[in-house]
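Tutorial handout. Part one gives the primary structure; part two gives the three-dimensional structure as tokens.
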Amino acid sequence: MDMKFIFIILMLSKALVDAKLNFWRDFASPWKPIINYLFLNDPGLIRVRKSIEVKTEINNVTTLDFIGLVERYNYSAEEHYVTTEDGYNLVIHRISGSPLIINNQRKKKVVFFQHGLFCSSDSWVTIGPNKDLGTWQSNNVLLLIRFKIILLFKQQSKITKYKK
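Part two.
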């Protein structure tokens, strides 16, 4: 057997055990506990933009969101909530300017980045300026958050399916 397949089976088994999936109770929707486990939607979670906003007691670690990560290095960042014509909710982050560019008002070409599976737009800016592709190309960067789509859908009572 392929090692990737074995790894996927082991990770899925771990997620099922950690999610405490009860097949009899959750038979109608067996993916819901897995999605809830992989994509946390805890109302107690706090969005942190600046590291001084929260006290950390475990290993002195503060987790910043996308805006906090980008603004930590004096880049300007925006967060936009978009609903498409067919009802999908998207969250788009934009890095609109760099502290390294003196004239930030000139017309800029757009660069669009899409992260991979189980990642977020944070993965394009975690290392820091001039090291990440998101900040290196920071003239006018748009980053789509695919995993937050699932979080937004979980809050809606009805999910609109795309129809051609």
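Part three, for discussion. The mean pLDDT is 66. The CA atoms of residues 44 and 133 lie 32 Å apart.
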